[in-house]
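Predict the 3D structure for this chain.
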Amino acid sequence: MPLDSDARRRFVFLQGPTNFLFAKVAARLRSHGHAVERINVCVGDQLFWKGPAVDYRGRREDWPGFVASFFDRHRTTDLVLLGEKRPHHREAIALAAERGIEVTVTDFGYLRPDWIVVERDGLNGGSRFPRDPAAIERMSEGLPAPQRHVLYPHRPANQALWDMAFHLSSAFFPFTFPHFRRHTLRHPVPNYLATGLRFARAPIEARRAEALARLLDERGAFYLFAMQMEDDYSLRGYSPFPDLDTPMREAVDSFARHARKDTAFVFKVHPLDPGLKGWRRRIAAMAARAGVTGRVHFIDGGDLDALLASCRGLVTVNSTAGLRALELGCPTMALGEAIYRLPGLAFEGRLDDFWNGARAPDPVFVGKALRAMGAALHVRGSMYDAAGIEAAAQGMAYRLHHGLVNVPLAEVLRAEPLGAP
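Done. Predicted structure below.
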């Protein structure tokens, strides 16, 4: 329920995104009389926070005791954080639940590109979004379709610079937070060097992608696998897979056994994958082992929407590309837990049955689900565009101030300003 005008909350912000979104949200909340505290756990946190904060420099095993005491001492009512699967976050959320503290989680939106998700308790498999189609239909009543034109363009240069500032500062100055451990799988230096080399090869890969697209047009039916970044916690946190190789290998083996012989399987790499694993070589080895060399391909680039519009189906772990595929009428198989893995949207059977048993989703229900997801779980904005950060901060603070997290707001879908909180 919305808060009355006299209700004041006590917020704790923990480890936010690699930008100034949380700082701007906090400033808006303070302007309305709410108390705001911040816990930094690394140097990167310090860089993107303006205002007072407490630096936690202790050991991991002491973290739960510290957080519990912090919550109690500050009479915390709300915990706000980016994602919920990092070790620090999981422990803080468990302690918050014991105390009746409301947890709000944010991240890049399920809708892309300029939407930010704002959810109660968790994302994807941890989402409170209804799993019952009838409940989704009721929620969507009276809501307009999401406006899909881009209001806040993505700024890849900002993303690269801010992300590097966050991760490299913590890597190069570990003595300030001596017990902090990265949630990423690899050290950021080789990650960024490899990413730079991959971007330098972008023109070559673009030509390869165009050639493969022409080949697919000539030869006909193919399936698409939307790859994700292994450092993406949703991949590891909401699936049984410890890495990306495992689901890819399973998909190739299943394709080899059950897909028609005249079909192909295309793996599309994530745009920000650093390329350290040599995916082209790995995928070729998977195909050779399964006996489908020549039918399995790797693509670095290409238009995702065009590929989704022409493929027979999409396989992924829990990429947001799955939601876009459904929006375009493409049959979709989610191997992990995903917001769209529910009756009437993603394929409900086994992967072995997907190749020949998948059907296009019901466009009417897809539209209703998108209206409900957009209105209840999102605000418009961007993580790396200045105007987009302001818009996201405004929308997020509005939801937090008025107690409207997970409550459908038609204004979000119309892309109209919500006004100051």
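The chain has 17 helices and twelve strands.
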